[in-house]
Design brief:
The chain has 219 residues and is mainly α. The protein has helices spanning 14-43, 55-77, 79-88, 90-108, 115-139, 143-159, 180-205, and strands at 46-49, 170-173.
């Protein structure tokens, strides 16, 4: 990484970076809560606390969320994205990162070979991957994107029990089958609307940080 070590991924200054991480976490956590309550409204269901949950189970799930997000961020928004930005600029690098992130989720979600799920997953996760990568390009740090990614995953997986670890903090009770339009609204709210809102947040709410050796006008 041009002999810059891990510091090139933007871990300094720590105070500023931790604020960005916290802000990102809060933004997507709130969005995820809103999406889950929209789903509950559409399904005429309610969220109840899992009486069998323990602190140990929660900590195990949080650790799993942390490791999975860190792995994906290092892979898709880490050293490779940094080097791509130096070589070909932010716009092309963000696009490449987003496409790779979308394709990766074909396999992690197990939908490869099913055309319609592949299309929707590619669009949704690709848009979100674009948001994470853009956060890196604007702040010159992984921390904002990491916070945005972690906030969604923790809320979705651990808080609302939607991940692969099963029943965790809250459980859905009393679900009814959705009509076609309600199903479409529920589907697009999390997969399409949320990434667009996050992209708007990064576009208008995050100031681009200047870097001396990167004088090109990117985004």
């Amino acid at each position: 990484m041009k002999k810059k070590s891990i510091l090139a991924l933007g871990v300094l200054p720590p105070g500023k970076r931790l604020k960005q991480l916290g802000l990102g976490f809060l933004v997507t956590a709130i969005l995820c809560v809103l999406v889950q309550y929209l789903e509950a409204y559409l399904k005429s269901s309610s969220w109840i606390l899992n009486e069998k949950i323990t602190s140990g189970i929660v900590l195990k799930s949080l650790w799993w969320d942390f490791k999975s997000v860190l792995t994906e961020e290092l892979l898709f928004r880490g050293a490779l994205l940094y080097l791509l930005i130096q070589k070909i600029g932010s716009k092309k690098s963000i696009l490449i990162s987003a496409i790779a992130f979308g394709i990766y989720h074909w396999f992690s979600y197990g939908v490869f070979g099913n055309l319609m799920p592949m299309l929707f997953i590619f669009i949704g996760t690709g848009l979100m991957g674009c948001a994470w990568a853009w956060a890196f390009a604007k702040t010159r740090s992984m921390l904002l994107g990491f916070g945005l990614h972690l906030g969604w995953n923790v809320t979705y997986n651990t808080l609302f029990s939607k991940g692969p670890l099963g029943e965790l903090v809250f459980l859905s009770k009393g679900e009814t089958e959705l009509t076609d339009w309600a199903s479409l609204l529920n589907f697009t709210s999390g997969l399409i609307l949320v990434p667009i809102i996050v992209l708007l947040f990064i576009r208008y709410g995050i100031k681009k940080e200047a870097v001396q050796e990167d004088s090109e006008a990117n985004l």
